[in-house]
Specification:
The chain is mainly beta. The chain is built from one helix and 27 strands. The strands form six sheets. A six-stranded mixed sheet has the order 14-13-18-17-16-15, with no helix packed on it. Strands 1-4-3-2-27 form a five-stranded mixed sheet, with no helix packed on it. A hairpin with a 2-residue loop joins strand 16 and strand 17.
Length: about 350
């Protein structure tokens, strides 16, 4: 094969790839627009002012107008009317003073970004994401935010996926990528080139956080020290941690499957005793759970009968408790008490 023919073949392949990517972008955009075009399937009201009082903030996935927008319901009336904002997010989290929104900007050239919003909804900061949004958290004091996105792949069960997780201050300070922190697994520094980190949850002291570290097929729950820029292993087989409001427990998903397909159960670890309990949810929960209070968890599950839709479920951490539907047509919940 001559050099000219090789270049022509390469050009043909590149043209096909670009065309396929453009087609995917257009179809994704059209599908998103279609889900937004009809009347909403739930009671909604638009608001130009941020909601106040104890509430649950989430991504609205009800088909129709308002699909994909950040919404909220009163904490004591989760099935009631939901208030919509103008922000469209794939993942959202909120504390008293700031909101972090990870979103996909759909079009022929699809891009991804993180946007930090202040109390009145004004944009404080933004930064590009390398790929599909995955996890995000705001610290309890509203001073720190974390974002995780895929660099390659689009799910944690994908072979060879890669993530980027960064921590930033609400004041704009960039603490960097967790891959640049020193990671200690059982006292040994993890230097594997395939190491990945995701799913940050913050402690109340402005310095301590937890996250997932991974290399090969192994995952660890790690405790982070922001000042020392270190990550130290706590236990194996834990992903997407979430620290309880009182700081005594940490919930996470763990892969309980013995086969090729992952099945994630919800587990809760008592940080004082080291006792782990697995909750009674039998479905696979590929989410970073949120604490409703010190005794109850919230998490999202896709609706198997409606692509693009999902529901938020709750489950007490007491042994043997069953899950119950908490907010239909919702995703990425955040409990805000202020």
């Amino acid at each position: 094969m001559t050099t000219r023919i090789r270049w022509m073949a390469l050009l043909a392949v590149a043209t096909v790839v670009i065309a396929a990517a453009a087609t995917y972008g257009v179809m994704s955009f059209l599908g998103y627009q279609e889900r937004q075009s009809n009347p909403s399937a739930v009671d909604v009201v638009a608001s130009t002012s941020p909601p106040t009082g104890p509430r649950v903030v989430f991504r609205n996935t009800a088909p129709g107008q308002g699909y994909g927008l950040v919404a909220s319901v009163a904490l004591d009336d989760p099935s009631g009317e939901r208030v919509l904002t103008e922000q469209a997010c794939d993942r959202v989290h909120q504390a008293d003073r700031v909101t972090i929104c990870l979103r996909t900007n759909r079009g022929i050239a699809t891009t991804f970004e993180a946007v930090l919003l202040g109390p009145a909804g004004a944009e404080l900061d933004s930064w590009p994401l390398p790929g599909i949004p995955s996890r995000t958290r705001v610290s309890p004091d509203s001073e720190l935010v974390a974002s995780t996105s895929f660099v390659t792949g689009m799910a944690y069960a994908t072979v060879g996926f890669s993530t980027q997780t960064v921590i930033r201050g609400a004041d704009g300070e960039d603490f960097g990528d967790l891959e640049d922190f020193t990671t200690l697994i059982d006292g040994e520094t993890l230097v594997a080139v395939d190491r990945n980190f995701w799913g940050v949850t913050f402690g109340p002291d402005g310095n301590t956080f937890y996250a997932t570290a991974a290399s090969g097929s192994q995952t660890w729950l790690v405790r982070g020290d922001l000042d020392a820029r270190t990550l130290t292993s706590v236990r194996e087989d834990a992903e997407c941690p979430s620290l309880s409001p009182n700081g005594r427990r940490i919930a996470y998903k763990m892969n309980t499957s013995t086969g090729a397909s992952a099945h994630w159960a919800i587990a809760v670890l008592d940080l004082t005793t080291g006792r782990q309990s697995i909750l009674g949810e039998q479905r696979s929960v590929d989410d970073q759970v949120e604490w409703l209070d010190d005794e109850t968890l919230l998490y999202g599950l896709p609706n198997p009968d409606a692509p693009g839709d999902s529901d938020v479920w709750s489950i007490p951490i007491e042994g043997g408790s069953a899950p119950s539907l908490f907010i239909p047509h919702a995703w990425s919940p955040a409990v805000v008490l202020g």
